[in-house]
Amino acid sequence: MVTQLINTWTREPLEESGMTAEHTWIWREMISAIDEQDLSGQKVLDFGCNQGGFLRLLYDQRPFASGVGVDLAQKAVDIAEARKDGRPIDYRATSDLAELGEIFDLAFSHEVIYLIEDLARHAEQIASVLKPGSNYYAVTCCHKDSPLWASWRPRIQAFSNINVPDHGVADIAGAFRAHGFDVAVSRFLASALVPLEGPNDYFQSDVERLDCYANWKLMFRMRRL
């Protein structure tokens, strides 16, 4: 991951501002898929929180003691702070989890891990802030094992303000195993109801969209040993 802060993630403001609405149904599926049920005493981290929607939804569905969302994009963090509406969440612009000075019971990222250049550093940082026995859930369909990635990667790079690496499942799993995690993965949207929106820049058809979400949208569960 780049170490400097950035203003926004993308060169296309409408795409960035639309991510909350686009991802909410997936976030609901993420919440229903995790092992943890009662979060009332837990401190939660969202790595790459963007405009903060995931932690807000998580708190509304399964209230937690406190949450921290971190992101490189300062404008996104400012929006997240403005929208937290009294929830016990702190959004911060940082590239270094050590700056938080906190230890967490649970961590998440959604469509962030594929943008992290140095997976080993990311795994090391997550290990440093996560309690032993706790889980980090990282969800992505952007990986080189997906047949769509060859066309997606240049599309994403065209509007991204950072470089887009070329990671596969083995790269992600290997980095975390090397830093003391037990790694498991599921095709977690295989049975989900998928909104059908017709062709767009990423999917040539709704059938292609269904195939992607059923087979290539993956939830990694990294459990710190």
Automatic annotation (TrEMBL):
The keyword Methyltransferase applies. It comes from the Bacteria. One of its GO terms (molecular function) is methyltransferase activity. Pfam families: Methyltransf_23 (PF13489). Keywords: Methyltransferase, S-adenosyl-L-methionine, Transferase. One of its GO terms (biological process) is methylation. Gene3D superfamilies: Vaccinia Virus protein VP39. InterPro entries: SAM-dependent_MTases_sf (IPR029063). This is Class I SAM-dependent methyltransferase.
